[in-house]
């Protein structure tokens, strides 16, 4: 239960509780899974700057946004620029190629988690070449490849069978990108009484296929899966990045209410 203070969500408590659950789930994970302790990305989409400042004030540094325009506004907000100099923005929504140039130059952009095809990867690679010329300290743009593990038409992501090929394209044809691993959104509302989440099983298989094909250490290839309702189960299966929103910030407003 999220405690509210003066009508607002207690973000600090939400983060502390989420981190405690991450620690607990990580401690229970099978020793056969060689993966680091998961990183918490606090998903702040549709939430006001004040709540981000609250989270940052207790040490949270990684924040996720779904909408390009909202990320632009937040990343350039004077309060964020002044008080959150070490913030790391993760873009976790659908990125259209015609909006690439709007996002690559943002302050403190840390990672694009949703590279779902070669066209987007190529566009990001070209855009980062220009960004790198202006900011030599930023040699690479961190990315994950998004995989549509559930097969839902409304979900973006490459098909699992193409995961190895997309990873190959990014690593071999896009020298300005650094591919850190794989990501999925998955189907919402899996009933865990029926067994493990098939989307998590599928993403871990893609992870294994990539590691085997390219002789990568599984512990060094990131796996971004798990949200507020299932991040504990995701960690137990091998997730190294969890994207948690409502458990920290409360229920989010609809996009047209943001």
Question: Could you give a short description of this structure?
Answer:
Keywords: Pyridoxal phosphate. The chain contains 10 helices and 10 strands.
Q: Can you characterise this structure?
A:
Keywords: Pyridoxal phosphate. Its cofactor is pyridoxal 5'-phosphate. GO terms for molecular function: pyridoxal phosphate binding. With 258 residues, this protein is an alpha/beta fold. The chain has one domain (11-26, 35-244): Alanine racemase (TIM Barrel). Helix content is 39%, strand content 17%. It contains 10 helices and 10 strands. An 8-stranded parallel β-sheet has the order 9-8-7-6-5-4-3-10. Strands 1-2 form a two-stranded antiparallel ribbon. Helix 5 links the parallel strand 5 and strand 6 (109-115). It is globular and about 45 Å long.
Keywords for this entry:
258 residues; alpha/beta; TIM Barrel; 8-stranded parallel β-sheet; two-stranded antiparallel ribbon; globular; disordered N terminus; disordered C terminus
Q: Any idea of the CATH class? A: Alpha Beta
Number of strands: 10
Shape: globular
Main sheet specs: 8 strands, parallel
Low-confidence stretches: 1-7, 254-258
* CATH H-level superfamily: Alanine racemase
Rounded to an integer in angstroms, the radius of gyration calculated over CA atoms is 18 Å
Structural class: alpha/beta
Integer count of domains: 1
CATH architecture: Alpha-Beta Barrel
Hey, roughly how much beta strand do the residues contain? 15-25%
Please report the number of helical segments: 10
How do the SSEs run, as a string of H and E?
EEHEHEHHEHEHEHEHEHEH
Describe the strand arrangement of the main beta sheet, using strand numbers.
9-8-7-6-5-4-3-10
Helix content: 25-40%
Keywords: Pyridoxal phosphate
GO molecular function, one term: pyridoxal phosphate binding
Family: Belongs to the pyridoxal phosphate-binding protein YggS/PROSC family.
Organism: Aedes aegypti (Yellowfever mosquito)
